[in-house]
Amino acid sequence: MTTGAIDLDIPMLWVPFVLAAGMILQSLGYLALFIRLYQKGIFNKMLEWFKYVGKTALSNYIFQSVFYLVVFYHCTNMFQLFGKISLAETYLITFSFFLFQFFISYLWLKRKDQAPIQYWWKKMSYR
Description:
6 helices, mainly alpha
């Protein structure tokens, strides 16, 4: 198994710069593709479904962090599934949890204007 470590001696000093430039160009390409597809009607309509998750992004992020700490890692004495389940099971848990958050975000924003952590953040900031 390789770790991606590169032995950098004098003739190879250009490699990190080329890799960084490639990553920047790839990111710009993805961004340009996303913007171009967003200008098309069907992609725009498809992304409309993600507006609820986007409006509750901070709360979802905190909730995900707590959920995955409890489920996967040994810092709690709950499930401790890290290294005990297959990659497919990991993806299934992740996708299921995303769908759960998607549904909860939709229901929450039908009743409230902001997600809970955003609400408290704003309340504490403008005190």
